[in-house]
Write a structure and sequence with these properties.
disordered N terminus; rod-shaped; 1 helix
Amino acid sequence: MDTTVAEEYGQESDTIEHNWEQYSSETNVIEAGSHEFTYWKNFIQRTRTCNLSYEIKTVVYYCDIHDHTRSETFIEEEHHSEDHS
């Protein structure tokens, strides 16, 4: 391939915008550890352990013009095993 053609091709591909389309998505629950909290019951202070987890969604996008992929990750929800509000 001639170098001038390669340079023109490289410049042309940089100016074409991506055609991102959602390829797939997946949701996972990830355990994030635990913490202790205190509460009162019958005038006695007690301590409990709360397990924390996150629901994480990953979305993969694909561009058929450039044959590229990209992904985004979102925290959908935070889950506590105990109600300690």
